[in-house]
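Order emerges. One example.
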Amino acid sequence: MKRPTLTLMSSVMALTSALGISAAQAADKAAVIDTYGDIAEAIYGDALSTAQKLDTAIDALIAAPSDTTLNAARTAWLQARVPYQQSEVYRFGNAIVDDWEGKVNAWPLDEGLIDYVAGDGATDENPYGGLNVIANASFTLSGKQIDASAITPELIANTLQELDGVEANVASGYHAIEFLLWGQDLHGTAHGAGERPYTDYVQGEGCTGGNCDRRAAYLQAASDLLLADLTEMADAWKDGGAARMQLAEKGETGALMTILTGMGSLSYGEQAGERMKLGLMLNDPEEEHDCFSDNTHNSHYYDGLGIRNVYLGRYVGVDGTVTGGPSVSDLIAASDPELDRQLRADLDATMMALGAIKSTAEAGFSYDQMLDPANAAGGALIETAVQALVTQTRSIERAVAALKLDAIAFEGSDSLDNPGAVFE
């Protein structure tokens, strides 16, 4: 990047001095924003590289279905979720991410749109929830016959995704692939994930579930589409990419508001509310984020880690590479050291609470079981994490004020703000 001339630097210093802002302060903000962009580039790059490994594992499953290749594909999916979940803190403030995110991580989904399920799957609210496009090479939409004989990325993205305007008709992204690898989790609040057999991908004799060739085609097309979508976002955060340019156009104040909007909104309305408190109130495993694989404990953990990454300006990649630099924490520490210490402590408390859920699930007490109203200890684990997220959000609000930014209306959730509405 071309360095500013001494004359230009002198002019900048004179201007910032006249405005009562030191050149060091101005440079610090710019550096913090650069760090934020660098971490996004690293995270989305990791999300892409792990999705490429998932795609390779899916190819192997389709070529030679077996318990071994199915389990390898499942493991690759779980590994791909680690970096992606850490990217969700870039939502809510970056329009380019929000406009794109639904293609790769929308949930919950009416999985009967895609493949066989227990029962019909269709409801009055969503008749296409029982479509089972894998079993049906054509169907009628608004009086028009739709040719679904070839299951392609284009069919999934342009026709099936949010079919008939229904958000629950999720046809693409991580969770569609998750469903195709695990199948429905029919264990309710008991321990156990989906149990799709590898024979659902056996071609010819030995095929279970019917239409194994179309199921394989759907899985491959969904994986291809995920790669294309992640490539788009990884490119957007490279130097000169669309996301970096959009952030720069906001100016330093607007960019800092974007950073804190993502932190606060993910922390409060999205994670504490929609992903955790709501499911606990309803005692409903269908509200799990990764419901087919029983990986919800990890999704929650890495969402929380993503928030801390951005505040501290440090991300550890899947290969151990550290991306970091000047951080929001540095800015807050310069203006209110006590607030910085408090927010760091709040973030640590959240990670301890989310870590307790993660370690408990890994020890065999799954998130499904924590949602069972009969399991008070499990509910307490979730509630503790919810309250930690709410507490850290209050400190994030104080950080907004400490940076002299306009007040930010973080995303909310009825589960936190109007609990009675949840049951109406």
User: Anything to note?
Assistant: The CA atoms of residues 64 and 396 lie 50 Å apart.
